[in-house]
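Might you be able to check the backbone structure tokens below? Thank you kindly.
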Amino acid sequence: MATVSRLRFLPSLVRWRRGVRLALQSQALAMIVPGVSQVDNNSDFLGKRPHRQHPGILQLPRVKLPHALTDAAQLLLRQNSVPNMEQQVQTLTNHLWSRHVPVEPEELQRRAEDLEKKLGSADSSQSEEKLRGAVLHALCRTTYHWQKLSYNEGLSLVYMAARLDGGFAAVSRAFHEIRTRIPEFQPQTLMDFGSGTGSVTWAAHSTWGQSLREYMCVDSSAAMLHLAERLLKGGSESGEPYVPGVFFRQFLPVSPKVQFDVVVSAFSLSELPSKADRTEVIQTLWRKTSHFLILIENGTKAGHRLLMDARDLVLKGKEKSPLDPRPGFVFAPCPHELPCPQLTASKPLACSFSQAYHPIPFSWNKKSKEEKFSLVILARGSPKEAHCWPRITQPVLKRPRHVHCHLCCPDGHVQHAVITARRHGRYKRDLYRCARVSSWGDLLPVLTPSELPSSPAQDSPES
């Protein structure tokens, strides 16, 4: 290295001190929070591929809708003039994102009894009628008022303008994970519960169009089914559909013997009025699943909790009339089947992911966007992997000579790992380089301490 002149010595010293401070902070954090131990070199996971193509990378490039779907959606909005469309789109988007699970009757009764005791003790002179009125008023102020959305022709168009592209992006990301990890999987049948505008059908056709021969779209709204059918026909009432083999129904197939290779419920569980209804639907969907059940909700605490409840219901095996005896396991995103560490933390967080997409270019909708969502993919059978790699659950922070990764690990814990060029670059450069090119939602090809045999080498400073 060339000799630094006196004029440049002071800035260089400042940078050196800053680097030492960052290194000390990284070492302290790595010591406080258990980090990753070694790259999974045992399975020769790279082969001859470069680090930027390691098999844990599952990120999907910015999604763009098929031209036929974009053109059909734009045509439908031109044909049907909806007043204040941009404002209605924003209002519906905000409403759907802030949606909470409806309060169960038992919980509502408990809250009413607590309020009655509290208000009654504060003012014992009021009559029973006034006390009931005060309790009802307090309940209305403090309890989330859930209402079922009824989609008529107008609201269906607003939903299409607000959610068609984002929903397509989230489902495409889920399909991409299955196709990347199991490229030989070629489904022939698919069922979409709560199909709405049919974004699942379009995403599935873009992913497995060569093998899929039957798409079953189920939605309780006749207006939504009609809109989805028109989108498939280019926005018209007649003509040949862009995707062949699509069938529409307002109710789930009655026969319990009918199974589908892939079953999807995207942003639909939050539209069910009670826990009993959700339990019944999840059991029915799982019973109709022969390979993969994909559940997607908003990337909020409420959406994540709904998915974890569904995950636990399937894993515990409470299935009515199990015609398919194969057990279920979590295919993604969890690397374990233990309680979700995000929910059991002192401050619960939503386990969510993000997918970039190009929106339908309406007049108000031209900038690239990100869809934030939670998902769980359940599969029948037994996992083939001998072990699971940790999942990156937050955006990767890349800093000079070190990387911050938040990992959900196979032992059921969340770890904040600081992977440095010094500690993981000299002897384990694969780990540092893999972490450097990984993103939110990827798998990091690494063995965590719980998966390693105990050895003196693990306790050394360089491990």
In short: DSSP finds 13 helices and 15 strands in the chain. Residues 105-142 form one domain. The first strand starts at residue 38 and ends at 39. The chain has three domains: 25-56+389-459, 63-79+151-380, 105-142.
